[in-house]
Design goal:
Elements lengths: L1 H29 L2 E10 L6 E9 L6 E9 L6 E2 L1 E4 L39 E2 L6 E7 L18 E5 L17 E9 L1
């Protein structure tokens, strides 16, 4: 009798895995690609500007989003925290963007309280000798498709560039980059 139960479990596991592969093929065959961008603008007179491009392939299983950020006009050789924030607003002084994107019943949007474990935490920007910073980062912590991690919830989201680097620490005031240098509202393409 024990062999039949074991065989039954094995068949169930194999069936589940096959369903996952079929589902993944269906998503790829449908060509589900979600795109968004944020035009990043610094404070008046700062000369800081840039763009974040977000591309998600697939809407099922474990979708990932490629986040590409390029910012110009930074002080050469500086490092800046960069995060996705919880609200799609940038004024006044970029405070309307709220805290870090971290939805859910156990979310904590305070930049320093749950850092670096927010869903919206992404790498620092490092300015080169010309004041240009660029990175590509793939994450499964956010989505562009509908769902609990979607950047397009009821109040949208924004990309914030901070004055200081993100130190990746929890509980240290200002460790997540401090003051806000630039902001861009995430919009669907």
């Amino acid at each position: 009798m024990k062999t039949n139960r074991t065989n039954g479990r094995l068949v169930a596991v194999i069936f589940t895995i096959m369903c996952l592969f079929v589902s993944a093929e269906r998503v790829d065959a449908q060509g589900d690609i979600f795109r968004a961008h944020a035009d990043i603008v610094g404070a008046p007179g700062s000369g800081v500007y840039g763009r974040a491009t977000l591309i998600q392939t697939g809407a099922e299983l474990l979708p990932t989003v490629l986040v590409v950020v390029e910012v110009f006009g930074l002080e050469p050789g500086t490092v800046h925290g960069c995060h996705i924030h919880e609200t799609g607003k940038c004024e006044p002084n970029f405070k309307a963007a709220g805290g870090h994107f971290d939805p859910g019943p156990y979310g904590m949007t305070n930049p320093d309280a749950n850092h670096p474990f927010h869903m919206g935490d992404i790498p620092n920007l490092i300015a080169d000798e010309n004041g240009t910073a660029f990175f590509e980062h793939r994450t499964s912590r956010i989505t562009l498709s509908p769902g609990p991690l979607s950047l397009f919830d009821g109040d949208g989201s924004a990309v914030i560039v901070h004055v200081d680097p993100d130190e990746g620490t929890t509980g240290q005031k200002g460790g997540a980059g401090g003051a806000r240098l630039a902001c861009g509202v995430v919009e669907k393409d």
